[in-house]
Design a protein that fits this description.
This protein is of the alpha/beta class. Helix 2 packs across helix 3, helix 2 crosses helix 8 and helix 6 crosses helix 7. The longest helix is centred in the middle third of the chain and has 15 residues. The chain is 47% helix and 16% strand. The strands form 3 sheets. A 5-stranded mixed sheet has the order 1-5-3-4-2. A two-stranded antiparallel sheet has the order 6-7. The chain has a two-stranded antiparallel ribbon with strand order 8-9. A hairpin with a 2-residue loop joins strand 8 and strand 9.
C-alpha cells in the first residue's frame, strides 16, 4: 500500500493563525511551565496518560502545548495531559505555542475549531485536536461536535483512534493504513493479534473490508496458518463507556462478557468520590 502524504506533525502550528508578532513556537523546558489555576479539569486518569505517552513515543507530539509567557517562565494555557506524558517519557523540553499577555484561551479555542475544517488535516491531528478541546477546555463530545459541525458519533469515532496500540497509530501516521483500516481495530482487546493483522494489511495492501472481516471473524490467513482472536468488544459497549465517562467526568471501564460483566468507575480522591456519588444520587 503506497504511503500518502499527510500534514501530520504540523500540529497547532498549522491549526492556529499567527497574527501577532508576540506569538511564536519554541522548545521550552518542561520545568519552566507552571500549572494553570483555571484549568477546567483537575483530575487526569493515569491510564490515559500512559496511553498518550505510548502514542507520543510512537508517532511524536501531534499538538504542542499552549503557554502564556510570564517573565522567564510560562503558565500553561492548554496541554496538561501532553505535558505530563512528556515528563513521564523523561523529556526535558516540549514544543509549545507561546502567547504573551492575557490568557486568550477562548480565542485559541475559536481559532482551533475554525481551522479544524481544513481538508488536508490528518485524522490523527483531528483526533488530537478533539482531545485537546475535551481535556483542556472542558468540552463534552456533544459540544465538540456542535463546534466543528459534526455528529457526536463522528467525534467519538475519531477519538477512538487515539486508543489504538502505538504500532497501529504509527502505520496510520505514515499513511500505510487509512483511517478506515484503523477503525477496524478499535475495540480489540487482543492487541497482539490486532497489531499483527495491521502489519500484514499494510505490507500486503489489504482492503478495509478484508481487515474488517479478519477482525470480525476472529481468524485470518496470515500466511503462517490461521490466527484466532477473542474478546472483541462491540462498538455499542465502547460508545456506552464513553458516554458514561463524559457524563460522570471520570474514567469508566466496562468489562463486557456477553451476558454479564462489571463496570469500574475511577476516582482520584475522597472528594472526587463524593462528587460522583452526588452526581448519581443527588444531594440526599
Amino acid at each position: 500500500m503506497a504511503a500518502r502524504k499527510s500534514g501530520l506533525g504540523r500540529g497547532l502550528d498549522a491549526l492556529l493563525p499567527q497574527d501577532s508578532p508576540k506569538s511564536g513556537f519554541a522548545e521550552i523546558p518542561v520545568d519552566a511551565v507552571a500549572a494553570n489555576p483555571q484549568q477546567p479539569r483537575a483530575d487526569f486518569d493515569q491510564e490515559g496518560i500512559d496511553s498518550l505517552a505510548a502514542s507520543i513515543d510512537a508517532v511524536g507530539l501531534l499538538q504542542p502545548i499552549v503557554v502564556r509567557a510570564d517573565g522567564e517562565s510560562y503558565v500553561l494555557v492548554a496541554g496538561e495531559r501532553r505535558l505530563r506524558a512528556i515528563k513521564q517519557l523523561g523529556g526535558t523540553t516540549i514544543a509549545a505555542a507561546i502567547r504573551e499577555g492575557a490568557d486568550d484561551s477562548a480565542n485559541l479555542t475559536e481559532a482551533l475549531v475554525e481551522n479544524l475544517q481544513r481538508e488536508d488535516l490528518h485524522v490523527l491531528e483531528e483526533a488530537a485536536a478533539y482531545r485537546l478541546l475535551l481535556d483542556d477546555y472542558g468540552m463534552t463530545h456533544d459540544q465538540v461536535g456542535q463546534f466543528v459541525g459534526k455528529s457526536r458519533s463522528a467525534v467519538s469515532n475519531t477519538l477512538r483512534l487515539l486508543q489504538l496500540p502505538a504500532p497501529i497509530q504509527s502505520l496510520l501516521a505514515s499513511g500505510e493504513l487509512s483511517a478506515g483500516h484503523a477503525r477496524a481495530f478499535v475495540g480489540a482487546e487482543d492487541e497482539t493479534y490486532a497489531v499483527r493483522i495491521a502489519e500484514i494489511a499494510a505490507k500486503e495492501g489489504w482492503s478495509v473490508r478484508r481487515v474488517e472481516d479478519a477482525m470480525k471473524s476472529g481468524t485470518a490467513d496470515t500466511g503462517k496458518g490461521r490466527t484466532s482472536l477473542t474478546n472483541v468488544r462491540p462498538a455499542a459497549i465502547i460508545e456506552l463507556e464513553e458516554r458514561l465517562t463524559d457524563r460522570l467526568g471520570t474514567g469508566v471501564k466496562i468489562d463486557y462478557r456477553g451476558k454479564g460483566g462489571k463496570i469500574t468507575i475511577k476516582y482520584s480522591s475522597p472528594e472526587d468520590l463524593e462528587r460522583i456519588y452526588r452526581h448519581l444520587f443527588g444531594s440526599d
